[in-house]
Design a protein that fits this description.
Elements: H1 2-71, H2 77-94, E1 104-105, E2 112-123, E3 126-135, E4 142-147, H3 152-168, H4 179-200, H5 206-220, H6 226-229, E5 235-240, E6 248-251, E7 255-259, E8 261-262, H7 266-279, E9 290-294, E10 300-304, E11 314-318, H8 327-332, H9 338-349, E12 354-358, H10 364-372, E13 380-385, E14 397-402, H11 416-423, E15 430-436, H12 439-450, E16 454-460, H13 464-472, E17 488-495, E18 500-509, E19 515-522, E20 527-530, H14 537-545, H15 549-568, H16 574-586, H17 588-597
Bound molecules: adenosine-5'-triphosphate and magnesium ion (MG).
The site of adenosine-5'-triphosphate (ATP) has 15 residues, from helix 10.
């Protein structure tokens, strides 16, 4: 019994212990769960805290930016700039990678390894800084623009304002490429922009508000940031290939460069293309996905839509040189030698028809323009182009004409041939043709030369031999017998590696239609050398002018002196050069007095 009792007691003790164990375990489990939850909570809290810290840091930056804006009034500009730079550096850490939806100026990932060039320019009175640099992982040089007076943090706040502005006013619906309409829009929206700026930056000075307003207008109208690139005189071309890659530019000195500007999406590029199309009265649609337009300022724009351009919608903007190149630039940058320039001038003076040939973007049109400045002021010049690129001195009697594409119904087309035929009825002394591309144009041009007009045209060919071959074979097929009507062929050449442009060859055409190369570019010495004596050009000149070889030599020397004088006096504008050339024809003694004394002509 006792044993039984003991046994029972033992059992109940075990039971008790077990249930106690169970309870403890349950408690422990609960505690563990609680502990785990707490740990999770702590982890979450830590995460949240770092987020909050990040946000706080950003807020602090905005705060310090605001303080900075206020302080712009007080401390020296340099100090403020230094602080702005510091802020910009910090904010670069925030924006590291361009996201797909990013637009505008982006600080691209990749450390700058070397700054190759840097300069500043103005875009509607906003100072812009440019850096041309190499970057880790990039195989082409990068073109980085930044708005010197606006740090990246400011830029972020302004972008918020811009988004709000776009929500408030429908900028997309207005034609913003027309400079006149632009002023109206600016007036209309500047109030809203001002309101928004004051909302975000309540304590800034009026001057700063004006500056930020004009910056935002610039950013919101037209082609946004791409407009900035349009103000850099060093850029020849600005291109959008797709919204997946940055905007590219072709730099006069450094060739193709990747910029730090992005378009947001394909719709944006299409919007820009439509805007340009509307401006020139043409449409770009799925059915007509190619657009070629000539803007008022002289820039040439080509746009293509996806899926024709498979990577995305494209825009290619060839920037018209705001300060056209003149013979002074050509001599100064060694494009042509003094002797060759004097000879070309002499040829132009005595009405020898010429063809200027070269590869794509080798400088054919620029050379034609340079040579056209040698025309005498008392002759009627008719120029015919697809897109107006030529720009002649105001002293000349010049009628520029340009072709027109048909409208969407296929009506109203005016071709180059139409204009060439028409020009013959306009009593021209000189006919300048932008570019001969087709058989009809070449035929009409040679007809015009044969009927006694002095003509000048550009043509696509890499050297003298190729020029003759292309002109006299299919599809252009000018009868070889007609070739000697052209007295001079000048070849322009662009070295793709060094990006230098040079006159490559100057040749005359002999009566048997063969070419005699008079001058040839020597790549090693980077100079143009005489390699053959003239067999026909000089004798033609002597025949028409009655001058002896010595007299022609003397005229050439005088022309060289005038050209040298223009370089010394830095007479570089089209009208400046035009004035000197006009004086050399009408009052040469007077001009030579200035030349001899190296005194500024006015
Ligand atoms: N001698 C030169 N020195 C420096 N830059 C030049 C020179 N010639 C031309 N350029 C520049 O090169 C660019 C292309 O010149 P241009 O339009 O004259 O070439 P092109 O051969 O007529 O081109 P395309 O094949 O497109 O008709 C222009 O931006 C022009 O300013
Ligand atoms: Mg051209």
């Amino acid at each position: 019994m006792a044993k039984h009792k003991k046994h029972t007691k033992n059992r109940s003790t075990t039971k008790l212990r077990r249930s106690a164990d169970k309870r403890t375990k349950g408690n422990l489990d609960k505690k563990l769960v609680k502990h785990m939850r707490f740990k999770e909570y702590i982890k979450k809290a830590i995460k949240q805290k770092s987020k909050i810290d990040g946000l706080r840091k950003n807020l602090e930056k905005v705060g310090s930016f605001e303080r900075l804006l206020k302080s712009h009034k007080k401390p020296g500009k340099e100090e403020a700039n230094a602080r702005d730079d510091k802020l910009e550096e910090e904010s670069k850490k925030i924006i590291e990678k361009p996201s797909k939806s990013a637009e505008g100026i982006i600080n691209q990932a990749g450390a700058i390894t070397k700054v190759i060039d840097s300069y500043d320019f103005l875009c509607n009175s906003i100072p812009i800084s440019t850096k041309i640099c190499s970057k880790k992982g990039e195989y082409v040089l990068c073109y980085e623009v930044s708005i010197s007076s606006i740090g990246a943090t400011t830029e972020m706040v302004l972008e918020k304002i811009r988004e709000e502005l776009v929500r408030k006013v429908n900028l997309g619906m207005v034609d913003i490429t027309d400079p006149k309409r632009k002023t109206i829009i600016e007036e209309k929206f500047s109030d809203t922009i001002r309101e928004l700026i004051i909302k975000y930056f309540p304590e800034v000075e009026d001057k700063t508000i004006d500056f930020l307003t004009s910056y935002l207008i610039q950013k919101s109208l037209g082609m946004g940031e791409i407009e900035i690139l349009n103000h850099d005189k060093m850029l020849e071309e600005v291109v959008i290939n797709s919204s997946d890659e940055p905007v590219w530019v072709y730099h006069r000195k450094h060739g193709w460069l990747k910029t730090n500007i992005w378009v947001k999406d394909e719709d944006k590029t299409r919007h820009y293309a439509t805007m340009i199309g509307r401006k020139v009265g043409r449409q770009i649609t799925v059915l007509t996905p190619l657009l070629d337009a000539n803007l008022d300022e002289g820039d040439r724009v080509n746009a293509t839509l996806n899926p024709i351009s498979t990577k995305g919608n494209t825009i290619t903007l060839r920037r018209f040189s705001r300060d056209p190149l003149t013979i002074t630039h050509f001599i100064e940058n060694n494009t042509i030698s003094l002797g060759a320039a004097a000879m070309a001038w002499l040829g132009i003076q005595f009405e020898l028809s010429s063809i200027i040939a070269g590869g794509t973007a080798s400088g054919k049109t620029s050379t034609l323009n340079v040579l056209a400045s040698f025309f005498p002021p008392n002759q009627r010049i008719i120029s015919i182009e697809d897109t107006r690129e030529l720009n002649l001195p105001k002293y000349l009697h010049w009628v520029p004409m340009s072709t027109r594409l048909p409208n969407p119904e296929g009506k109203g087309q005016v071709t180059m041939e139409d204009l060439l035929v028409n020009s013959l009825r306009m009593r021209p002394d000189r006919i300048v043709v932008g570019e001969v591309r087709r058989k009809e144009e070449a035929e009409t041009l040679f007809e015009a030369i044969h009927t006694g007009h002095s003509c000048y045209a550009t043509f696509h060919a890499n050297n003298v031999e190729e020029t003759i071959r292309r002109l006299t074979n299919e599809p252009i097929n000018v009868p070889k017998i007609m070739l000697p009507a052209v007295s001079m062929i000048m070849i322009q050449f662009r070295n793709r590696r060094t990006n230098m442009r040079r006159t490559f060859q100057i040749a005359e055409i002999l009566p048997d239609s063969e070419a005699n190369i008079l001058m040839q570019y020597d790549g090693k010495k980077d100079s143009l050398r005489q390699i053959n004596k003239s067999k026909s050009l000089m004798s033609t000149l002597q025949l028409y002018t009655g001058y002896s070889t010595q007299e022609i030599g003397k005229i050439l020397k005088e022309k060289e002196n005038i050209l040298k004088y223009m370089v010394k006096q830095q007479i570089k504008t089209i009208d400046g050069v035009g004035e000197i050339v006009a004086e050399s024809y009408t009052n040469p003694e007077n001009l030579m007095r200035f030349v001899r004394k190296n005194k500024r002509f006015s």
